[in-house]
């Protein structure tokens, strides 16, 4: 509170502000790798909790290798809604001070 954004460095703003929009990206690698982008060093329980928070733990637990399942190009083919859930789970893990959501849940069922 009380900090003026225009007085902060870009790096500091990025540490405290997160954006999720309708265009999300899943990187080639494991589901775990994709989640750890938000908070390197997070434990499995935290990764599963982030997936549960966005209602993605059900399908993720059904993956043959769970968090170690390869996703993205050449891996498990995610639906657009599942990819959006991964982006939202990253947001949960990052736990930023400020969220900017631009149609961040447009592909999810109500």
SSE layout:
Blueprint: H1 10-16, E1 17-21, E2 29-30, H2 31-36, H3 44-53, H4 57-61, E3 70-71, H5 80-94, E4 98-102
Parallel strand pairs: 1-4
Antiparallel strand pairs: 2-3
Description of the structure:
The chain is α+β, with helices and mostly antiparallel strands and 110 residues long. The chain has one domain: 3-Layer(aba) Sandwich (Rossmann fold). It contains five helices and four strands. The chain has a two-stranded parallel ribbon. The longest helix is centred in the last third of the chain and has 15 residues. It is globular, with a radius of gyration of 15 Å. The N and C termini lie far apart (33 Å). 18% of the residues are buried.
**Spatial extent as radius of gyration:** 15 Å
What would CATH call the architecture? 3-Layer(aba) Sandwich
Overall helicity:
25-40%
The count of helical stretches stands at 5
Overall 3D shape: globular
Low-confidence parts, pLDDT < 50 over ≥5 residues? none
Could you tell me the number of beta strands? Answer: 4
Counting structural domains, the number is 1
Could you list some keywords that capture this structure?
110 residues; alpha+beta; Rossmann fold; two-stranded parallel sheet; 5 helices; 13% strand; globular
